[in-house]
Amino acid sequence: MEKESNHIIDEVTRGEYKYGFYTDIETETAPKGLNEDTIRYISAKKNEPEWLLEFRLKAYRHWITMKEPTWAHLSYPAIDFQDIIYFAAPKQKKSPQSLDEVDPELLNTFNKLGISLEEQKRLSGVAVDAVMDSVSVKTTFSDTLAKLGIIFCSFSEAVQKHSDLVKQYLGSVVPFTDNFYASLNSAVFSDGSFCYIPKGVRCPIELSTYFRINAARTGQFERTLIVADEGAYVSYMEGCTAPQRDENQLHAAIVEIVALKDAEVKYSTVQNWYPGDKDGKGGIYNFVTKRGICKGNHAKISWTQVETGSAITWKYPSVILMGDHSVGEFYSVAVTNNHQQADTGTKMIHLGRGSKSTIISKGISAGQSNNSYRGLVRVVKRADNCRNFSQCDSLLLGDKCGAHTFPYIRAENPTSIVEHEATTSKISDEQLFYCQQRGISAESAIGLIVNGYAKEVLQRLPMEFAIEAQKLLSVSLEGSIG
Amino acid sequence: MLKIKNLSVAIKGKEILKGINLEVNPGEVHAIMGPNGTGKSTLAYVIGGREGYEVTSGEITYKGMNLLELSPEERACEGIFLGFQYPVEIPGVSITSFLRTAINEQRKYQGLDPVPPAEFLAMMEENKKLLDLQDKLANRSVNEGFSGGEKKKNEIFQMAMLQPSLAILDETDSGLDIDALRVVATGVNNLRRPDNSAIVITHYQRLLDYIIPDVVHVLYDGRIVKSGGKEMALELEEKGYEWIKNSL
Fold first, then answer.
1. Does A99 fall in a domain?
2. Which of A374, A257, A267, A389 lies closest to A315, judged by CA?
3. Do A440 and B117 touch (CB under 8 A)?
4. Is B172 helix (H, G, I), strand (E, B) or coil?
5. Of A119-128, A156-165, A468-477, which range is least confident?
6. Which of A265, A340, A409, B40 has the fewest CB atoms within 10 Å distance of its CB?
7. CA B179 to CA A349: how far, in whole Å?
8. With 70 as the cut, is the pLDDT of residue A246 above it?
9. Half-sphere exposure of residue B154: CA atoms within 13 angstroms, side-chain side
10. Distance of CA A461 to the CA centre of its chain
């Protein structure tokens, strides 16, 4: 811990976006723009079965009838969807069988990001699926997991090898008609991770996907599908970074989680897409649909997210509590600095009797940023004895940023209890002076105070992620005072 | 150690300190007494480096340095500790991690490596025992939900951990019962060494029964109007501040 805390301090004093590099690697791309041919191109490149191409085309045909949503508390110029490359792949031999076959330049990239695939292979602990631009580079540990019947592979591989499972669950939580960005993703999604935990199996290691946008003018549309069969358990982590560029890049992902009877899925995200520079130039537009369904009784899905990156974040990881006594949780820290905008929150849909949900949201705004919490808690008529507790806290640094809370509550059942608490606070000059008087610089003090404020959420993260997240929080708020 | 020459300080254009002269030598404990609103806390904050206090004239020299040129954290790293009259709450930050950060930042400033965890924990234990603090205190967030007495004890605990060269305690005794008062005194007396100094700001004489000062000053209307030995505190207690007012 000693080393770590010092490391954190060092980071704070440096504190630029350190993942902004670009890897010069040969890339194969689809022609710019989107039409049915683009979709056929992607599908053919991936050698997909006919049903999947049909799924994509249906989604596309639906998408062109839709309009971009404007209800979020976000402002940005219209996106030209014809000015985007929808498929980019690092050129390499098809599906490397071992790490020796992976392009060394690619491995270098992930090493630089602190995701050493080789290291991962040697040391047990975390199985990683690394996705660069549109394709999955390499999944480690698959063989070890296979012995337990656990499937953890790239989405493309799952389509080839576990077609029935993919077909059964794809779009079952987020239908292709769900929303503008979900439809777009369903039409053009490139790769992502697939995970299936069989009945009664407790996944012994953390599963992790690392997403990396590298190529210019390219959108990233990954798709993650996690299925936990009856009584299964898995903890899943997702990390993301992108190079520093002057133009905005679109990221529109979908994550679907299915938890059957007595199953539990923990999903943790540390989102650190490039946020743009101090003047708001560049950065990732992050429009993501994440949703889980507690399909059986006593199922549990828990979302934990630390959002520090992206120019724009539009994201509402949700849980449909279908099973009786199922549990949904949402723990979130969202940091915005400079000109970043975040509109994020969750939806908890109580369908099952005695289902429970907890929402803890911590927003931190600095600079001239805008940070909104938007959440829906819904209890339907038949859902007796449900319980929800929501707490939405906002912390403001400086006087040019904004914090907003939009809670929606729809309780149709009289035996259910829904509770909502909200606070807004500022880091006071008194607090800063108190820390400085003990020898702690203002920058470090902010890191310390913010980490303290977000502790309730950070302590939910798996250990290795928690440390990274702590550092990130401090770095993201670099230069936010004065 | 500390030399204040003709110091005048204004807050938002209003003059609070009007030409303070004060010299504290190594090993000395000075008490500053005086009625409310005469500038005692202002003096403490100016030495600590708080923003919003405008030095209109005069100078402060500390260990031969021009103190007014240093940032608050540099002053702390050079060994100045300010015990706050109203300690601030920092939710979610445990006393342990707060102190470890503070100690390591100070050590970094001094070109030292971070304190080894075992050594740090031993220091914590020793000082908790010395100040009769409960074990669980270290895991609680800084000052959050603390009683008035606990907050003041926590200030002294931090002082004991940070081992400052010059401690300034701003009415650390106000609102304390006799037991807590003893704890505060123990902390200060324990720090008393030939190379350390302290300035104890207090409204009442009773703290000075436990911390025997070398010099007592009376601050009135922004000026030090009287200085003397420890017996002056008793005289002041007996005759009240009216005595000072009338003698001016």
1. yes
2. A374
3. no
4. coil
5. A119-128
6. A409
7. 55
8. no
9. 30
10. 13
A444–chain B Cβ distance below 8 A for any pair: yes
Gyration radius of chain A's alpha carbons: 22
**Strands, E, within A179-253: which ranges?**
193-197, 206-212, 223-228, 233-241, 248-251
- Tokens 């490397």 — which residue? A96
The C-alpha of A438 sits at a distance from chain B's nearest C-alpha, in angstroms, of 6
Query: A321: helix, coil or strand?
Result: strand
What domain range is A427 assigned to?
A: 26-435
Domain span at B82? 2-247
A52 Cβ partners below 8 Å, 6+ apart?
A43, A159, A166, A167
Chain A residues with CB inside 8 Å of B98's CB? 435, 438, 448
Contact between residue A129 and residue A115 where contact means Cβ atoms under 8 Å apart? no
Q: Is residue A18 part of a domain?
A: no
Interface of B with A in 159-188 (CB under 8 A): 162
Number of structural domains found in chain B: 1
User: Residue B100: what pLDDT?
Assistant: 94
Model confidence pLDDT, tens digit, residues A328-358: 999 999 888 888 898 999 999 999 999 999 9
Q: How far apart are CA A31 and CA A444, in angstroms?
A: 47
Gap between the Cα atoms of B42 and B21, Å rounded? 14
Residue A198 lies in a domain: yes
What is the CATH number for B177? 3.40.50.300
pLDDT tens for chain B, 248 residues long, are 999 999 999 999 999 999 999 999 999 999 999 888 889 999 999 999 999 999 999 999 999 999 999 999 999 999 999 999 999 999 889 999 999 999 999 999 999 999 998 999 999 999 998 888 877 777 899 999 998 888 998 999 999 999 999 999 999 888 788 888 888 888 889 888 899 999 999 888 888 889 999 999 999 999 999 999 988 888 888 888 888 778 77
Is there a contact between B90 and A451 if contact means CB atoms under 8 Å apart? Answer: no
Q: Comparing C-alpha atoms, which of B42, B38, B36, B66 is closest to residue B54?
A: B42
Angle at CA of residue A196, ends A386 and A387, nearest 5°: 5
Chain B residues with beta carbon closer than 8 angstroms to that of A431: 88-90
Contact A28, A85 (CB under 8 A): no
Structure confidence at residue A169 (pLDDT):
97
CA-based nearest residue to B231, from B213, B244, B246, B219: B213
> Under an 8 A CB cutoff, do A439 and B102 touch?
yes
Using CB atoms within 10 A of its CB, is residue B119 exposed (0-12), middle (13-18) or buried (19+)? exposed
Q: ipTM score here?
A: 0.96
* Residues in chain A, overall count: 482
Tens of pLDDT, residues A251-304: 899 999 999 999 999 999 888 777 787 777 888 889 999 999 999 999 999 999
- Taking alpha carbons only, the member of A291, A294, A432, A220 closest to residue B90 is A432
pLDDT digits (tens, 9 = 90+) for A87-102: 877 665 444 555 555 5
Tell me the average pLDDT of chain A: 82
pLDDT tier, A5 (very low <50, low <70, confident <90, very high otherwise): very low
Domain count, chain A: 1
Task: Report if residue A466 sits inside a domain.
Answer: no
Rounded to 5 degrees, φ, ψ at A102 are -80, 135
Q: Say how far apart CA A17 and CA A245 lie, in whole Å.
A: 12
The verdict on B145 touching A (C-beta cutoff 8 Å) is no
Provide the angle, in degrees to the nearest 10, between the axes of the packed helices A2-14 and B95-109.
60
A135-156 tens-digit pLDDT: 555 556 667 788 899 998 889 8
CA distances from A160 to A94, A178, A195, B149 (A): 13, 26, 14, 68
